[in-house]
Design a protein that fits this description.
Length: about 120
């Protein structure tokens, strides 16, 4: 997968956040094809484990990790104002069934999105 893309590293104000976004991409057996789609859209991508990937832009950086062969877990940091943009990217990547949750700095659920 290529490095670089849509604006480089995660902006400093978001790197200071603990994970504020998590989700499940249902029906995906592994994270590779999802990471490849992010790559095609210009996101920075890299392998982060045997089966996991880190994908990111200046406004979002998440880990994609497969579970039991039936779903991929997503967690990381996102600019809260771009939460809907992340959901749109998942839809473009073929994640027709997903759940995304956005949390505030006190770990309270702020928003939820389903695809």
């Amino acid at each position: 997968m290529r490095e670089g893309g849509e604006g480089g590293d995660l902006a400093g104000e978001w790197t200071a956040l603990s994970n504020n976004v998590c989700g499940i991409l249902h029906g995906h057996r592994n994270a590779g094809p999802v990471a490849e789609c992010f790559d095609r859209l210009g996101w920075r991508t890299r392998s982060s484990s045997w089966e996991g990937y880190e994908v990111g832009t200046t406004w979002c950086e998440v880990e994609l990790e497969p579970t039991d062969g039936k779903a991929v877990l997503l967690n990381g940091a996102v600019d809260p104002s771009r939460f809907d943009d992340l959901a749109a990217v998942l839809t473009r990547c073929g994640a027709v069934r997903y759940t995304l949750e956005l949390y505030d700095e006190d770990d309270n659920l702020r928003r939820e999105s389903h695809g």
